[in-house]
């Protein structure tokens, strides 16, 4: 294993986690294309950088593209032909993405892919892999809900399909890994919200069925946020959480014989490979990024690293052959030439791969290291530095705190001997050691072991194993807290069926679904209930959603349960929205459309937004699309208050004219290059207003509506015919056509939220 000496760009640009990478052919050479992630130069943040790395020469190059996806983490990137497809991710703590972007390698161009077909919900920390022209996506997280769906995107038809459940379907998970090999997808590990998973599944794209893979040899331990790759006929796994268990182990599964082989990487301990990416370039495994922990915001990043897999594969072939040869007698040892080559290459620690271990399972043992209290901090620092401390068990004390017992891993038990090396033993005998004289930073492994022994460290069997309790998910915490409240107050247990399985967040407000806690019996414990729910899910304020009021102003009916007001600040796509959630509606489902509007080139354009609300589309037009001027029409006084505040806080108020009242009266005429009609279920009552707002030579309208899935074609014909007739009645000779239909979301069963881009041009 060796670090890659980076040139051309500061190496800090590759200090990332939660990014994506793909091996691609660029200028007739295989290189690694890296996108997004958290970290980078200066203040660590989510990135949208596109970097090209030559792992052989170490040259890193930034690819500058004018239009690109918003910064994100937890997305996936998949290489297909001359393109890279980026799916989903998380733009900020409250914004989960479901968009698809395509990067054309030769042209260096990004484009937002307009997909149709089955509904694909936003997600991050999912896994994706490609077979043929199709990209398969499994699992992930969407606003706290862990998914178990398998979707496939056909990159030729640009249609999503949801794969029906068949076979041994994997449980919901996130932070897992998935790769493709021939006609199979292989998926390993992940987290189900409460624990790490260690199962291996295969999905055959011909049979469309999942099944658990039966293997021989010791299986990799459960983990998440790891990396997975395919090299020749081997499936490889490296890194992941918990850090102490996996960051030095490389596991290979022979896909022909289904035999696992494991190798210890000769790492210094600083390369943690958590939320890293793994790419195969020739015989090199190229590892990019990774941090100290999935949830620690990048105070420690792994350097770009490459591992030569040729000697690893050679020994793995030998081990697999020995395990599967019927003539192999018990105790027979393979030739050691391959093992020696591994040791010389620095990939394998010779204490971890011995002839005795090939074909045999080592019995796990649980040990502790006893130290006097005065040496406890020093001892703990050493154990952590070299990855010897077992973080899954608790540290204990005995004899009124005189001795501290540290849980240690099996690799330390192998290394820690009863005697010191002679040289250090002589030094310590002449100069007794004290805690104040101990320095951990520069100590070697051998010296660390000897020094622990000199401090009186004793290795003992852990007869009382105290395992740390796994973190409890907010959902489980709420269930336990509310169940206790119900039981203590003698309420019927069927009330627990009304507990929500998911909720949304706006700023520091957690929004419960309208169907939760609706039984009048909850009123008996309401005073205690709402603080308990808020605390268990980590919310400062709590509210319950209600139906949108059927008034012309579409007021919110959200009910505040904990907190004294409904004003929130919500950041989305780099734009700050501030509003009173009890008075104004806010839709997460329109995120993709807001992103689409933000990515338009509206430089020098005048835009009329006929239903501005709090600035849903007005703000993207101004802050991202570069509009020269926006006329924002709105008649809800609460939305107007929020709109003016949002224009000010986003520093675009000087390019917006707010028009209060009915847009059919207030909207300007003959000025607009573009008109936005973002009202559901229909904006048809303002189509005449929109035509009058456009300039005499025409422009573009974005017309929103809820439409039955069987009536899309007839609706588009109705739109173009109606706009043409209105234009004619107003004295305009326009060619009117629907140039694009955006399928934003499913509004209800068989009812889809559509946006028709209608182009109006003066006839020549």
Automatic annotation (TrEMBL):
<dbReference type="GO" id="GO:0102522">
    <property type="term" value="F:tRNA 4-demethylwyosine alpha-amino-alpha-carboxypropyltransferase activity"/>
</dbReference>
<dbReference type="Pfam" id="PF02475">
    <property type="entry name" value="TRM5-TYW2_MTfase"/>
</dbReference>
<dbReference type="GO" id="GO:0005737">
    <property type="term" value="C:cytoplasm"/>
</dbReference>
<dbReference type="InterPro" id="IPR056744">
    <property type="entry name" value="TRM5/TYW2-like_N"/>
</dbReference>
<keyword id="KW-0949">S-adenosyl-L-methionine</keyword>
<keyword id="KW-0808">Transferase</keyword>
<dbReference type="GO" id="GO:0031591">
    <property type="term" value="P:wybutosine biosynthetic process"/>
</dbReference>
<keyword id="KW-0819">tRNA processing</keyword>
<dbReference type="GO" id="GO:0008175">
    <property type="term" value="F:tRNA methyltransferase activity"/>
</dbReference>
<dbReference type="InterPro" id="IPR015915">
    <property type="entry name" value="Kelch-typ_b-propeller"/>
</dbReference>
<dbReference type="InterPro" id="IPR006652">
    <property type="entry name" value="Kelch_1"/>
</dbReference>
<dbReference type="Pfam" id="PF25133">
    <property type="entry name" value="TYW2_N_2"/>
</dbReference>
<dbReference type="Pfam" id="PF24681">
    <property type="entry name" value="Kelch_KLHDC2_KLHL20_DRC7"/>
</dbReference>
<feature type="domain" description="SAM-dependent methyltransferase TRM5/TYW2-type">
    <location>
        <begin position="503"/>
        <end position="762"/>
    </location>
</feature>
<protein>
    <recommendedName>
        <fullName>tRNA(Phe) (4-demethylwyosine(37)-C(7)) aminocarboxypropyltransferase</fullName>
        <ecNumber>2.5.1.114</ecNumber>
    </recommendedName>
</protein>
<keyword id="KW-0489">Methyltransferase</keyword>
<comment type="pathway">
    <text>tRNA modification; wybutosine-tRNA(Phe) biosynthesis.</text>
</comment>
<dbReference type="InterPro" id="IPR030382">
    <property type="entry name" value="MeTrfase_TRM5/TYW2"/>
</dbReference>
<dbReference type="GO" id="GO:0030488">
    <property type="term" value="P:tRNA methylation"/>
</dbReference>
<dbReference type="InterPro" id="IPR029063">
    <property type="entry name" value="SAM-dependent_MTases_sf"/>
</dbReference>
<dbReference type="InterPro" id="IPR056743">
    <property type="entry name" value="TRM5-TYW2-like_MTfase"/>
</dbReference>
């Amino acid at each position: 294993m060796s670090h890659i000496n980076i040139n051309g760009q500061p190496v800090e640009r590759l200090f990332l986690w939660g990014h994506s990478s793909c091996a691609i052919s660029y200028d007739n050479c295989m290189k690694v294309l890296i996108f997004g992630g958290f970290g980078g130069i200066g203040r660590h943040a989510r990135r949208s950088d596109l970097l090209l790395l030559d792992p052989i020469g170490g040259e890193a190059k930034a690819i500058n593209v004018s239009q690109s996806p918003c910064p994100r983490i937890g997305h996936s990137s998949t290489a297909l032909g001359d393109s890279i497809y980026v799916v989903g991710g998380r733009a900020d703590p409250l914004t989960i993405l479901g968009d698809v972007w395509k990067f054309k390698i030769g042209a260096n161009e990004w484009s937002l892919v307009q997909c149709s077909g089955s509904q694909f919900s936003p997600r991050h920390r999912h896994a994706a892999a490609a077979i043929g022209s199709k990209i398969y996506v499994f699992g992930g997280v969407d606003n706290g809900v862990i998914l178990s769906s398998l979707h496939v995107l056909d990159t030729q038809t640009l249609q999503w399909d949801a794969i029906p459940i068949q076979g041994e379907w994997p449980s919901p998970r996130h932070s897992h890994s998935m790769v493709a090999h021939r006609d199979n997808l292989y998926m390993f590990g992940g987290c189900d919200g409460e624990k790490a998973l260690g199962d291996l599944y295969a999905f055959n794209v011909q049979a469309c069925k999942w099944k658990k893979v039966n293997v021989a040899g010791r299986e990799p331990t459960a983990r998440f946020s790891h990396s997975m790759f395919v090299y020749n006929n081997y499936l490889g796994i490296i890194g992941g959480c918990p850090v102490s268990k996996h960051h030095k182990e490389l596991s290979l599964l022979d896909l022909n014989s289904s035999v696992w082989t494991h190798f210890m990487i000769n790492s210094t301990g600083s390369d943690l490979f958590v939320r890293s990416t793994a790419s195969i370039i020739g015989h090199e495994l190229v590892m990019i990024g990774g941090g100290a922990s999935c949830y620690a915001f990048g105070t420690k990043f792994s350097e770009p690293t490459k591992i030569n897999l040729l000697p690893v594969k050679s020994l793995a072939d030998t081990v697999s052959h020995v395990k599967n040869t019927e003539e192999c007698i018990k105790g027979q040892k393979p030739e050691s030439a391959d093992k020696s080559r591994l040791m010389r290459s620095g990939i394998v620690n010779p204490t971890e791969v011995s002839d005795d271990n090939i074909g045999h399972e080592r019995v796990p043992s649980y040990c502790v290291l006893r130290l006097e209290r005065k040496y406890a901090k020093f001892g703990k620092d050493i154990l952590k530095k070299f990855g010897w401390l077992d973080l899954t068990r608790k540290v204990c004390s005995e004899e009124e705190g005189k001795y501290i017992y540290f849980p240690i891993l099996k690799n330390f038990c192998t290394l820690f001997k009863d005697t010191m090396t002679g040289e250090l033993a002589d030094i310590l005998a002449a100069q007794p050691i004290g805690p104040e004289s101990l320095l951990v930073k520069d100590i070697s492994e051998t010296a660390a072991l000897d020094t622990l022994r000199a401090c009186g460290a004793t290795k003992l069997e852990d007869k009382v194993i105290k395992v740390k309790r796994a973190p409890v998910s907010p959902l489980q915490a709420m269930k336990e807290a509310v169940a206790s409240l119900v039981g203590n107050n003698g309420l019927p247990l069927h009330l627990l069926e009304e507990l929500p399985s998911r909720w949304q967040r706006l700023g520091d407000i957690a929004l419960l679904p309208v169907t939760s806690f609706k039984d009048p019996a909850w009123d008996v414990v309401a005073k205690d209930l709402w603080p308990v729910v808020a605390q268990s899910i980590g919310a400062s304020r709590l509210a319950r959603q209600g139906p949108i009021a059927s008034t012309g102003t579409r007021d919110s009916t959200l009910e505040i349960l904990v907190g004294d007001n409904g004003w929130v600040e919500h950041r989305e796509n780099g734009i700050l929205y501030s509003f009173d959630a009890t008075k104004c509606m806010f839709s997460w489902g329109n995120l993709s459309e807001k992103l689409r509007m933000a990515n338009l080139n509206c430089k020098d354009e005048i835009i009329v937004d006929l239903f501005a609300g709090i600035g849903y589309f007005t703000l993207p037009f101004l802050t991202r699309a570069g509009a020269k001027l926006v006329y924002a029409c709105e008649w809800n006084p609460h939305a107007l208050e929020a709109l003016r505040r949002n224009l000010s806080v986003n520093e675009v108020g000087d390019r917006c004219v707010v028009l209060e009242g009915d847009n059919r009266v207030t909207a300007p005429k003959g000025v607009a290059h573009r008109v936005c009609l973002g009202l559901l279920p229909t904006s048809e009552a303002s189509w005449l207003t929109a035509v009058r707002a456009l300039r005499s030579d025409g422009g573009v309208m974005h017309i929103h509506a809820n439409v039955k899935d069987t009536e899309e074609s007839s609706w588009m014909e109705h739109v173009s015919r109606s706009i043409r007739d209105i234009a004619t009645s107003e004295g305009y000779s326009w060619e009117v056509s629907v140039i694009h239909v955006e399928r934003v979301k499913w509004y209800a069963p068989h009812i889809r939220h559509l946006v028709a881009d209608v182009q109006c041009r003066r006839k020549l």
